[in-house]
User: Fold these one by one.
Assistant:
Number 1:
Amino acid sequence: MSIIEINDLVKKYKKKKDTSIEFKLSIKNLVIERGKIFGLLGPNGSGKSTLIKLILDLIFPDTGLITILGISNKLKESRNFVGYLPENFSFPQNYSFEKAAYYFGLMNKWPKKEIINNLHKLYDELELTSILDKRVKELSKGMIQNLGLVNALVGQKKLLILDEPFNGFDPLQKRRVMKYLSKQNEDNNLTILITSHILSDVEVFCNQVALINNGEILNVNSKKNVLNDHGTIENYYFKYFDITGE
């Protein structure tokens, strides 16, 4: 069963000074099956974040259809079970970690008691209890990233969309987060779509990968096939993107 399906999607950005096309995203067909950990890879400016924003209906296509769990992404209910971690985000600077997590958790429209219970389970699993009283302005980059991740996870999620999710984590916390997300994937069939420039993280974490460049999907493959054919995700990536010609 597909959790995301994209057909005949086109999004054009025009230059401000004239009507010529500055960037065009064009995807004929892309299907992400439920239960996959899907890595979307490509250089800066290749269309990764644009595609994510289109999926979430944060920006609007010129043409094309996107469904989430079989529901048009134009309908609000399609996103009821989707958690999103953008690459760049912020929280009120004077809130504590716990207060920010709680108030943003309320946006899931769950009963307050369930939100609190869910958050405390996340704090325990991700070993965050020691920083709950710290104000946002006192948090390190990695701690802020933890807060964003908790916000994406709270609630009954079936799909996580994570843009550069491991930014700022030290190796120990990165391993802890990967282990937790992998367990949710295995136990609850949670689908995860991530972008990352850290190819070694993708190799450890993902089980399917796609390459995007200049707004077009170049290749979609299972990690198993990629490793069999290329040895590493890095070799696979540079087959398409190595500009040295080697």
Number 2:
Amino acid sequence: MDKCGILARRGNPAPLSAATASVIKRMSYSGFRTRESAGPWRRNRSRSWVPLLGGIAVATIMSVASTANAYLVLPGATFDISGAPALPPLGYTKFCIRYPNDCKSSRSDFRRRNIVLTAQRWNELNFINRQINNAIVPKPAEEWVLAPATGDCKNYALTKRHELLLRGWPSRALLLSEVALASGEHHLVLVVRVKGADLVLDNLYDDIRSVGVTFGEYSWVKIQMPQNPNFWNKVRLLQTE
């Protein structure tokens, strides 16, 4: 991936792991609300903050997801990743030599399928997506490294995956995926697979979106295999009714 989307939405930083915290300037944290009464927030294209949903169960989030203000749309498009194998990006292969723990598949992962999207997990995904989008200054980069001071899409996606692994998310649910933008530019995002949905964590958006919402905006190229993150497959979308 010689080129990469690097426009990042701004958020409000907070302490993450030691690696990521090293590039975050200490500030007060007041953006994404973690209290139960606050619930998830979203930012619209004009960059103004508006509350999306507050103090409600994830089941309610699902039921209202078809409204105009919601990006989490269920049911929607899902992945078919059982197609032809694809070569991993060369930079990712080098990344795995440097960070072998991020490229392992744990036996316990195979007992943790169909991750339920609880309110706590939804909050955690939003927290990680927004904070890392703000922590890394967008700038073209060559190296596939974790938590750099400046970087592009691959650095955002790798760091988000790393942070979620540290928080106990199974590697089989955290899949790096290469997409092509309408401009033809290739871009790396993190797909989080939960029961009933494939969610996209993207440095171009502070909002977490379902794969279905990206239809027509992104052309999906290839994705990591859940069974082993060192193997990649070509990917296509399946439209569900």
Number 3:
Amino acid sequence: MNAEAPTMSLTSVAALRRKLGQNGFRPVALHSNEKRPFGAAWQERARQNPPEATTAPPHPAALNTGILCYGLRALDVDVDDPALAEQLEALATETLGPAPVRWRANSGRRLLLYRSAEGAAGRAGGARRGAGRRSGDCWQRDLCGTRRGRGMMQKRRENPLNLAQAAPRCGARNRQGGACMSPAMANGRCRLHGGKSTGPRTTEGIARIKAARTVQGLYGAEARELRRHISELLAGAAHLVEET
């Protein structure tokens, strides 16, 4: 929220945190005018049943409120251009499904929250304004209160190679006798093992490629059969020499 936003009273802060707890969230006390958790071991205190912030009186120096969001994954659209940011948000929604979105009025940047596939899941939602940051093993979201300055959203950057590493592998036999580990294209092979060309598929096409003129025929079926026959003759000759 903007720095001009009024500070909430102790009573309203306590009521907000109780309501969050009743709706299944785990509220976290934040320093007033900041998005920094108040006190030590705040993750453990937020995981209590009920969470400490829902029962303890608010501290005058900690009137901002966040929620513990362990189990969520944040998709940060770090783009100032509003039109481009909207396109990226639409692409994320089409690929991953709808999600709660947070943004700032003076920028195209926004944040989409998704539930993780593994790990203890949290509740996604709440106010759509404010800022957040990665702290320890939990996401702390600033829901209500005031903070100084613009407060640029901080994020945990994912490894940009994760998508490439998760792509299907080619699997074709390579020169070392193992399976090719290059990323596969649409037909299941990489660009070096036929990914860009399917080759002949019909009976007529296969017959035509067999009958096509070759440059030297070194690796054709007839040449391979001839080399096999020569190897057998040489082995037989060597055996005769040993016997004599």
Number 4:
Amino acid sequence: MILRQTLFLLLLSFLGDYGLQAATISGQIELKQVQTRRANPRYGGSDSSLLGPASPFVGVVYLTREEGIDYSPPETSYKLSQRGLQFYPAVLPIELGSSVSFPNMDDTYHNVFSYSPEKRFDLGRYAKDAVPTPEVVFDEAGQIRVFCEVHEHMRAVVLVLDTPYFTTTDDTGSYSLEGVPAGEYTLNIWRVNAPLETSFIQVTEASKEE
């Protein structure tokens, strides 16, 4: 499926003493509403009184190269929280090799797990402010679907990317990816439950594309 999108490549600045050009890629993609599931605690109880608004399933825009991009994953962990019987954020893009912590901020138990082949894990049931906070290292690229065994409506996606150049859209589909060095890239547009869209772009001082 081909989506309408607007793309702008704008030269921002020069980096360091080497004259390396850095650009901002911004635009807007079409997002389709993702239907949320009805809250229904698997083991009964009054957990539904804790239910908060769901985090939106936003899109992810990222750049890749056929020859790969050199980078190191961050030393600090990303965070995928459980709050109001929801995952926050619902979509978490990370660099390959990064770790993600899963803090429980609810006054009830959660059990975070994934059966995705790129990373299968089950953190078991744990309460609010569990120490240490459960954490997972994601060492294979792919789309990791995350669930809660206690609250079956809860779902999120950890999108593990082999690139440092990525950003999420807002809930209207607008995005801005800053600090992109000049060069040739494949621009990838990811949305949940939709085929990946790709296009070739070239980032130069004079680049501008719509």
